[in-house]
Write the structure tokens for this entry.
Amino acid sequence: MMARDFEPGAKCPLDGIRVLDLSRLVAGNMVSLALADFGAEVLKIEDPKKGDPLRDWQETGPANPEGVSVFWKVYARNKKSVTLNLRSDRGREIVRELVRGCDLLIESFRVGTLEEMGLGPEDLLHINPTLVVIRVSGWGQTGPYADHPGFGSLVEAMAGYAAKNGFPGQPPMLPNLALADMVAGLWGAYAAMVAIHEVKVNGGAGQIIDLSLLEPLISILGPDALTYRITGEVPAKTGNRTSISAPRNVYRTRDGGWVALSASIQSMTERLFHAMGRPDLVDDPRFRTNLDRRNNVEELDRMIQEYVEKLSLDECVEYFRKMQVTIGPVYDISQIVQDHHIVERGVLVELPDAELGSVPMHDVLPRLSGTPGRLRTPAPGLGEHTDAILARLGIGAAARAQLKKDGVT
């Protein structure tokens, strides 16, 4: 894994963009992470006592007895932590002062909470007419479900993802990662830059971005709504197969490994049959076309499995790649961190860490040739930058000490 140092003063393409992040947990943090990695100054507003709940997402065990927050170390990199008690009048006043110098505000409170605080978007836009406000919620700011709890797991269930994930005859399967939040976060970062471009380049006004977790996740289901309209059938769970093409599955090798193989175009399927020593299958009526293969997928998978299980994992991957068949090993994280392609490209980097010595995490992405993002600072301690940011507002040392004593910061 590539060892890297942080680059505190590195020039980045979003230098000068300032973000006030009032959100909690994954989706809002994904938005601000994507922007922070490319130079935006992200002021992460946290509760003085508890901080962002993401700090409590820990992996415990013999090697991590103190429960170090691995999620916080990744999602909070390149950000500044400012503690403010938003339940206090003075805390909300400071937010209003900060808003004057910000381009973007991110929030993920229960729908209506920002208005109850006197920090509704209309109030904020009155203070700063060019401010962009991203409102993250489970279901959106309007509609019958607007005030329902919006955790990602519920969204993954109601967006249709769980129903089509998993194997036929088995229960619906939720993802074991924060999929809805991550997808929404990426859409949110894109929307933020569209809105900021409108302000900075076109001279437009600030605006409100209503970012639900529901709609981005529905968008990745592709044409399911159209398929249902045309066929009247609900797309079924297919396990590792796909209803679009065959073959596409995972197959077990002689030594207990697994490979993923996809031959989704005709030329690739023919290449596969030749590689298996079965050129006769090209004209076999059971497998001649993609539709034929889909209709006879059980038999096709059985034949591929019988061939693959004669080879070790390394032999299988090497041979099929040599034959230009699309195949790859099924990795877990222990294999990912050792793969020579991932290592050579620096997909994961090793960064210095005060608690653990060093920590691995994904590098900035995507890769830009002329204006790349940078890993500039590690995830901050709770309230690490409060003094510096308040001083920027002209709040003196004595006043800052009083704010801390009063529980505002």
